[in-house]
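BUG-728 | component: ligand-complex export | severity: low

The export step for magnesium ion jobs runs without errors, but we want the raw record kept on the ticket for reference. Input record follows.
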Amino acid sequence: MVVRALRDEGVKYIYGYPGGSLLHVYDALFQQEDVQHVLVRHEQAATHMADAYARATGKAGVALVTSGPGATNAVTGIATAFTDSIPMVVITGQVMSHLIGEDAFQETDMLGISRPVVKHNFSVQRPEDIPAIVRKAFHIAESGRPGPVVIDVPKDMTTPTERYPYEYPKQVKMRSYTPITRGHSGQIKKATDLLLTAKRPVIYTGGGVILGGASDELTELSRMLNFPVTNTLMGLGGFPGTDRQFIGMLGMHGSYEANMAMHHADLILAVGARFDDRVTNATDKFCPTAKIIHIDIDPASISKTVQADIPIVGPAKVVLEEMIQLVKGSKKQPDTAAIQSWWQQIDEWRQRHGGRFRTDDSDLMKPQQVIEMLSKVTNGDAFVTSDVGQHQMFAAQYYKFNKPNRWINSGGLGTMGFGFPAAMGVKMNFPDADVACVTGEGSIQMNIQELSTCKQYDLPVKILCLNNQSLGMVRQWQDMNYESRHSQSYMKSLPDFVKLVEAYGHVGMKVEKYSDLEGAMREAFALKDRLVFMDIAVDPFEHVYPMQVPRGAMRDMWLSKTERT
Amino acid sequence: MRHIISVLMENEPGALSRVVGLFSQRNFNIESLTVAPTEDATLSRLTVTTIGNDRVVEQITKQLNKLIDVVKVVDLSEGEHVEREVMMIKLKASGQMRAEIKRTCDIFRGQIIDVTATTYTVQLVGASDKLDAFISALGSASIMEVVRSGVCGIARGEKVLSL
Ligand SMILES: Cc1cc2nc3c(=O)[nH]c(=O)nc-3n(C[C@H](O)[C@H](O)[C@H](O)COP(=O)(O)OP(=O)(O)OC[C@H]3O[C@@H](n4cnc5c(N)ncnc54)[C@H](O)[C@@H]3O)c2cc1C
Ligand SMILES: Cc1ncc(C[n+]2csc(CCOP(=O)(O)OP(=O)(O)O)c2C)c(N)n1
Ligand SMILES: [Mg+2]
């Protein structure tokens, strides 16, 4: 029933790992071909693969893990999806229902463990409920503010010798769950009127624009108004990264011009962004002169950390479309003279810092140069997944994402080990696309066992390991706040990555000089059907800048090791 | 400020733990909590009293509404409402204390629901502050045990919390 329901849901791939409680399900998988199972080497990777599929396509990914340790190994992946609002359905095996509560072998209370990190979870009590539960799980995961849903399935619910009536429901109706489909027209009108009077506006958009497929509407509205646009880490690609109106990412490691513009703005249009603490810095100093319009599908995101002046609850796509129509139909036009001088100011900021890094004469590569090269070699058109650390910030700052759903990283939870399985999940579903995983020598070792899965399923992703021989992001904080006491942030005893990947049957490359970088990278991407691991030596002392000063305002930033705003 | 939040939710296993979990996970405070079935067997009604400023209470109601099992949420303290709590209190009662307790009990319109040679058990129904007042009015009488039901409440007039 589980497999049949997945097939009826249109699921092509599921990612998982078998175990006692799931043997009936695995046997059913064996006997059909519609739903293909991908065997990972660690359950965490299964959840990240499913998650990345969702990030790239907007549809829920599916993971299947056994009870006990299988389920607990999946928790990090579930939490990763939860904090970034990613739709996912995770099916966990469970011990026989009559054993639940008796500390049976491989029993864990998965409903309890997962509860704080899921949108919802189900436990199957009767086999005949399986189709309806599976349908509900997908509905809940994908609609409204998306999120992961766990279905816990006791082994006796899948006994193959017992037969039950099966009907896959076409529609779901739940009296306690009705996701919102449009915004309040009065509020939208009020907001649009305010947009047309703004003198120093900024459009600040986040993951909600990507999740809600609202990039086109965002781009159209922004162009009509000629307002500057900044994206959160999760919102990158929601607005074209090479567009003149794009002023970069904002927040802790946001661009100088984006953070300055936010601080001095008189109006902020926030779309599908949740005023995260990595964005706002100290909320009491946040954007002191701005009125805030906040569009979000989840009312709980509005006025949670920063009070909104005009809250609009609704899907970004529908609300923005309504705004576009209102602006088109309005007699009033944006204040072009004011917007013009606002742009002058922003361009000055751009010139003053413009997010540049410094290269010196040595041939030691800067990590930023590697990302710029990746952008060049892939024409800004690749799927780029990332792990967590300095390399993630460099990728966010220097890769120019022109399309949504191409930048795939763990923002809210910051899960090291995410990037590589994520790249695999994308490659599996987009076999012809270039898929690059930007990682560090620390992060990659958190799921490196998946090199084996890549061999089994022929997943020729490109791994760019920015090797700074340290847990760089940790070391940077230690440099800045702990007088460079590098407690446990070194990675002594690194493996020879080239030999390691070769042992798994892949191609390894070591790049030590900038002058070799372009050639090596082109060669790597030319090897279409091979996984290539590029171990790239980068400056171990580089820091990520700008970096906001703790407890300051948006404009308070370190711009280099010695300059502060 | 103190708020009484009333929640109508699916009578499903795990629903209560989601609500309670939400409060601890998000650092919301719970003063009291009661839950029981309603006239509709598929629904239960939960009442929680909490203390917080407007922003916190707004988050509480929004987050409660997000739970899939929750059908409706209302902050009763926003409008006219009636609240009641039941208390049973066991007291040492001998000698002249017996008459004393009886008097206090009458003033508060409590009932003595169990008697032994040395104890009284008093039942009192009312708003929570009345129960508090009773406890302090007992003065020197010695309290052996206090059981309170937690608050439940209902809106005044025509307003109802239903599907
Ligand atoms: C090392 C590190 C450094 C970081 N530094 C930064 C930084 O400098 N800058 C930065 O921005 N982030 C940074 N982050 C990420 C940060 O932690 C948050 O994950 C991120 O800021 C949240 O992005 P968001 O506001 O777009 O919200 P998301 O988590 O993407 O949430 C999406 C929001 O959109 C809403 N939504 C969903 N669907 C829709 C829809 N259809 N319509 C409307 N709304 C919808 C949701 O309800 C939610 O409120 C960093 C993370 C790490 C690990
Ligand atoms: C699972 C996990 N553990 C710990 C951390 C804390 N952490 C954040 S960045 C980082 C260092 C990452 O090192 P590396 O992958 O080499 O990247 P770099 O910063 O050097 O580019 C650590 C330990 C985390 N984000 N995730
Ligand atoms: Mg490193």
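Assignee comment: Attached the raw record above. Residues A 389, 440-442, 468, 470-472 surround magnesium ion (ligand 3) (CB under 6 Å).
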